[in-house]
Structure formats: C-alpha cells, structure tokens
Amino acid sequence: MSALSIARRTQDAVTILSVNGEVDMHTAAELESALQACLEGDDPRIIVNGAGLDYISSAGLGVFMAYIEDVRERGGDIKIAALQPKVFDVFDLLGFPMLFDILDTEQEALDRFAATA
Fold first, then answer.
1. pLDDT, averaged across the chain
2. For the purposes of burial, counting CB atoms within 10 Å of the CB of 75, is it exposed (0-12), middle (13-18) or buried (19 or more)?
3. Residue partners of 11: CB distance under 8 A and separation at least 6
4. pTM higher than 0.90, yes or no?
5. Which has the closest alpha carbon to 18: 30, 8, 10, 26?
6. Any residues with CB less than 8 A from the CB of 81 and at least 6 apart, and which?
7. CA distance 116 to 4
8. pLDDT tens for residues 62-105?
9. Which of 30, 44, 88, 103 would bridge with 74, disulfide CB 3.0–4.6 Å?
C-alpha cells in the first residue's frame, strides 16, 4: 500500500502543500481533500511542493486538472515546485508545463505569486 503525507502551511498569503510519498489511485483522494480545504478556506493561491513526491499516477494528475479551473476562477493559481526529475517527466509527458507553472524551487513559486499580487 502506498503512503502519502501532506503538510500545509501558509507563507506570504500563499498556501503551501508539501507532498511526500506517492499519489496514486489509493491516495489521490488525500491530495483532493487538501486542495478542497484550500478552496474552502478561501486560499486560491496554492503551491504544491513536490520535493518529497516519489511517484504520481494518472489519478493524481487528474486531481490537479479537476481543481485548476475552480482555483483560477477564484483569482488564484496552483503552482508546482521542486519536483524530482522522474516525477517532472510524468508531468512533462502529459503537457502539464503548458497548463501550470512548474518551478524549480518553492521560493521561485512564491516570487511568481508576489510578482502578480
């Protein structure tokens, strides 16, 4: 069974979700709950820090696709930061860099939000 943990914190009015472990069909609901909580808490500016993300399946990628429109309608965005190369390759293969800001570091993602605030 795959394991996933998501830590949530706020910095500069941006919610940062640090995702550790694997997002697959068994754990995608946890990522979905974390993003839903951000929307319910009126936090439309979200960074998903994937430094500890070891694996993501199509179910996990689908969660991002399910929420991006709602987040952007509320004036926010989901930025993805610090992905390991093998995980970035999955995002890249499916064209995510055309839809999402995928940045090398969490700080770059914070700077990108600050530039548009």
1. 95
2. exposed
3. 110
4. yes
5. 8
6. 47, 48, 49, 50, 51, 102, 103, 104, 105, 106, 108, 109
7. 31
8. 999 999 999 999 999 999 999 999 999 999 999 999 999 999 99
9. 44
Is the pLDDT at 30 greater than 80, yes or no?
yes
Residue 1 has a pLDDT of 57
- H/E stretch holding 64: helix 58-73
**Tokens representing 62?**
């689908």
CA atoms within 13 A on the CB side of 55: 10
DSSP reduced 3-state for 85: helix
Split at pLDDT 50, 70, 90, the class of 43 is confident
Residues 109 and 10: beta-carbon distance below 8 Å: no
55 C-beta neighbours (distance < 10 Å), count: 16
